[in-house]
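Dear Dr. K.,

Following up on our conversation at the group meeting, I've run the structure prediction for Metalloendopeptidase-like membrane protein from Sterolibacterium denitrificans. I'm pasting the input sequence below exactly as I used it, so you can double-check it against your construct before we proceed with anything downstream. Let me know if the numbering doesn't match what you have in your notebook.
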Amino acid sequence: MRLMNKAKSRILAQLEIFRVVHPGPFWASLGVAGISMFGMVAAFGTSPSTVEISIAQQTVVEQLAPAMRPAMRQDNEFFVREDHVQRGDSVASLLARLDIQDDEAFRFLRTNTTTQAIFRQLRPGKQVTAHVDSGGGLQALIYPLNTNDRALFIERRDGQLHASERALPLETEVQMKSGEIRYSLFGATDEAGIPDGIAMQLVDIFGGDIDFHRGLQLGDRFSVVYETLNHHGKLIRSGRVLAAEFVNAGKTYRAVWFESNDHAHGSYYTPEGKSLRKAFLRSPLEFSRISSGFTSARLHPIKQTWRAHKGIDYAAPTGTKVKSTADGTVDFVGTQNGFGRVVILRHQGRYTTVYAHLSKFAPGLRKGQRVSQGEVIGNVGSTGWATGPHLHYEFRVNNVQQNPLSVALPTAVPLTRQQLASFRSKAEPYLTQLNLAAPRSLALLD
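The predicted structure tokens came back this morning:
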């Protein structure tokens, strides 16, 4: 098209010349020009020659204004540097990787009382952010402390460095994840990218219904909607589970977090509004391997005779914390024959729980003391008739041993009618997110 336009311009120019040099009727001239133009169009339409192209091209030289020089960097501008503390790092090597070349700043870090936390807490993996000017001078430094959500802030104001410890401003983000049990719960949560803190919350939420020590099966599934707390888009720690679903042995359990306006603390409820908090936990320990199941015949470790086993043995390393499975009162703390060091708690009159073979008791634990569900009462050991470290746990009703893994456990007080209406409105968006996070929903989306 560009060649066509140039050709037309040349033809019009020739037409003007023709009119001046050869005066005559205009239409005759136009006819001659038209014939010439059609012939040229045909020529260009087939294969324009190099000579025609060179004639049509023109060289134009324009004077351009000189390029503007970039503005000089202002004194208050800086570079943002980020790096992680590495194994074997010193404060000097960390500052060098951040391109900080500021002797004054290094002396300030060494001599200031507040900044000594950097030297004591050089933990590998911490992400450090620095604002450095073009000359390597330190303008600001943010160093995360070992305590959650807090950091050491070093800032240059009016030419002087100042240090203070402050809480990090955190943003909340909602995550939706799902997984399937193949080897263990932690193996599944690791594969799904779910933090350990969220996995432990799942155990706490469903611990009254699911035996996470011996009840998990291959193919069990879970979905979870939870919060993460971030600083400038980077994960600081996991937050609260908002909703969760766990399918264990083909049975589905669901939970939604709810905090009513007339209660100081929230809790987890089924989608129908029934409390998931049981009066008793199924297990007094965190994850561990169970050495023998309830009522299984077992060889007595000392007498070498077979007898019915009236409790659950949880194999665990010495020192593992043992927790009360329910609110109660210490009925006995001391040593009893084959039990070794043992704690017996009484709950709601007719219920008692037994925790035997302990290595030690919780400091200050005494008879008649009130304890809360989940409170540490001792540590796993191998005292009494025990060949290795483990906890022997019994659940008794009217002093008769019952299977703590299958006995029906009472629940907490249900929601009132007014609370139930509020719960349903708040639970609906969480349940929608939970449905989207479920593996079956993801399969449908694929």
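Two things stood out to me. The chain has four domains: 2-49, 79-167, 171-269, 289-402. Residues 79-167 form a domain with the Nuclear Transport Factor 2; Chain: A, fold (CATH 3.10.450.350).

Best regards,
J.T.
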